[in-house]
UniProtKB/TrEMBL annotation:
Pfam families: DUF3159
Transmembrane segment boundaries: 66-94, 106-123, 129-150, 202-220, 232-256
Keyword presence, Hydrolase: no
Keyword annotations of the record: Membrane, Transmembrane, Transmembrane helix
Lineage top rank: taxon: Bacteria
Name this polypeptide is given: DUF3159 domain-containing protein
InterPro entries: UCP010219
Annotated segments matching region Disordered: 1-37
């Protein structure tokens, strides 16, 4: 994970524990335009601001990394930027705890920061603050390419799981289902789309979009990492973080969205 945590991953725990009919759902049962994180993929309308968690979500994703690169450029020393970055991340977590709001996103950011800080501190190289993110992006790239080559595009499973309302509670219910219960299983939706050429094509395209995101990050940031250019590495880390993630999430939503139901239907 990059030291800056992205809303897509940060919202997972909150999404999974949410009730099936949450406050961000349209009366039809489909999420409205204020769904957060990956839930935005099944919304009737797409809101980039809501997808990233609003202004607060954006601040939590960007601030620690921004503090690190600005501090490093100013002092040209490793200690102060690392401490400042950790302090920023801790303050964000404490603010949520004080306000008794969900801390998943802030904790995700703190974990990412901790990994980057430990790596940079133990190695004595500032660029290693970003090493974990580069490795994680490479891992995602390989996995997604594998799902495409296997004709099992990962985006298809994510979107269909969201549409089926699969949560940890639903999974437990299915695991405890009585042997004689022949009712429909929500897991059927996870594979049914593979027999639909149109949906298969859409999910392949959408998965390629995410391959492009991770490939672009690696292509831009790896040379800067190897050169030890912290100022530009930190800058592109921010530019190719939440802004690019939100753009690719929107393009994914556009590709996989279902046609709107006719008025009055």
């Amino acid at each position: 994970m990059a030291p800056m945590s992205e809303p897509a991953r940060d919202e997972v725990s909150e999404q999974q524990s949410a009730p099936e009919q949450s406050s961000d759902q349209h009366p039809s049962g489909r999420p409205s335009g204020d769904a957060r994180g990956v839930r935005a993929l099944t919304s009737e309308e797409f809101s980039a601001a809501q997808a990233v968690g609003g202004v607060r979500g954006l601040v939590e994703a960007v601030l620690p990394g921004l503090v690190f690169v600005v501090a490093f450029v100013i002092v040209n020393d490793l200690t102060v930027p690392l401490i400042a970055s950790v302090v920023a991340a801790v303050v964000l977590v404490v603010a949520r705890l004080v306000q008794r709001t969900p801390v998943t996103q802030a904790l995700g950011g703190l974990l990412g920061i901790a990994i980057g800080v430990v790596w940079a501190w133990t190695s004595g190289e500032a660029e290693n603050y970003y090493a974990g993110g580069l490795l994680l992006n490479a891992g995602y790239l390989v996995v997604l390419l594998g799902t495409i080559l296997a004709r099992r595009p990962a985006v298809g499973y994510v979107v269909e799981a969201l549409r089926a309302g699969l949560t940890p509670d639903k999974v437990r219910e299915e695991a405890n289902r009585e042997p004689g219960d022949d009712g429909p299983s929500p897991f059927a939706a996870l594979t049914a789309w593979r027999d639909d050429p149109a949906r298969m094509r859409a999910y392949l395209i959408a998965t390629w979009l995410w391959v492009g995101l991770f490939a672009l990050r690696l292509a831009v940031k790896t040379p800067l990492y190897l050169a030890g250019d912290i100022a530009w590495l930190g800058t592109f880390h921010l530019l190719l973080g939440v802004p690019l993630w939100a753009l690719v999430l929107y393009l994914t939503w556009y590709v996989v969205r279902r046609p709107k139901a006719p008025a009055g239907a």
